[in-house]
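Team,

Forwarding the record for the chain on the shared tracking sheet. I've put the sequence and predicted structure together so nobody has to dig through attachments.
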Amino acid sequence: MSLRHALLGLLSQGPASGYDLLKTFDISLANVWPATQSQVYAELRHWLTETDPGPPSRRSEMLLRVFFLGELSREQARAYLHRQAEIGEEQIGRLTPVREMISTMDDDLSVYGRLALEWGLRFSALRRDWALWAEKEIDRLPGGEGERAEPETGAGPREETDRT
């Protein structure tokens, strides 16, 4: 057991600043696990600077579905991709006003919040742009509109031969 575990336990109750954590610590855990302000902030700094968040998750439900879009009609596949583009655009629409609101602020939360916000905006634009591109790629596939394209085998039609 460590201070880290105690802080995680408090954070499991909901988001909190370092100050909030220290106040909660003082009124709840101080009798069983005392901690000073410098210890709490040192632990938070450790998390920020020395803990590797690890590689980004490679799991994507959206891309898993994309992988199997060939099982649908082209119209359904395009509709799915079009919806992904809309989702990206909607996220941009939600984040842009926040960017405008904090653009002139220079406190740490605003400055570093803008960095995270910019990632969200760029990721959303990437999702939108990729989905629009993918929709056009489906249009380039051989086969009729709205139909699934059968895989090409390279061989012509099979002819029946009489083996009598």
